[in-house]
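Reviewer 2 asked us to include a model.

Predict the structure of this chain.
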Amino acid sequence: MPPLKRAAIVLLLLISGQSVPVWAEEKGPETGLQIEVPVPLKESKVVFSMNRLAFLGDQPAGLAQMKFMMARYKASQVPAHVAAVFFGEAGYMMLNDAAYGKVRKSDRGNPFKDQIKALQDEGVQFELCVNTARSNGWGNADLLPGVRVNGGAMLRIVQLVQDGYIQVQP
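Predicted model (structure tokens):
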């Protein structure tokens, strides 16, 4: 299967909420594709640095990558400790429906809240930078349930890296 077609299928599965195949464990006999560098999973600590807007269509790339990663770890029964630190221009994704509507001038609510809730249910910890919140006039009451405010995104990422987390920048 061509890489672009495979990526499109994975994206559609992620958006639709369907399970994602564990590509590394498939042989792909219809194409003859062989995995030559398998990626065995080990218990991992990952921090997603979510400070810029990167989308695949209407889907935030970081949320799609988190969902794919969590599905792989779950399918492999390997523990993963994942934190998502939102700040800067991507901070608005952490807002509840009312606050999101004011900021984005929309009456539809936060379109990412269900994905975020599903990722929280899988164990992903979502955080918002105090400086991003303050500079936008947001309080804790403006945030989605379970979103925690940290003492500063850059210092929090440094702290997590010092604690053994690997930083991912979608």
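Strands lie at 44-50, 55-56, 59-60, 80-86, 125-129, 148-150, 166-168. The chain is about 40% helix and 15% strand. We have added this to the supplementary material.
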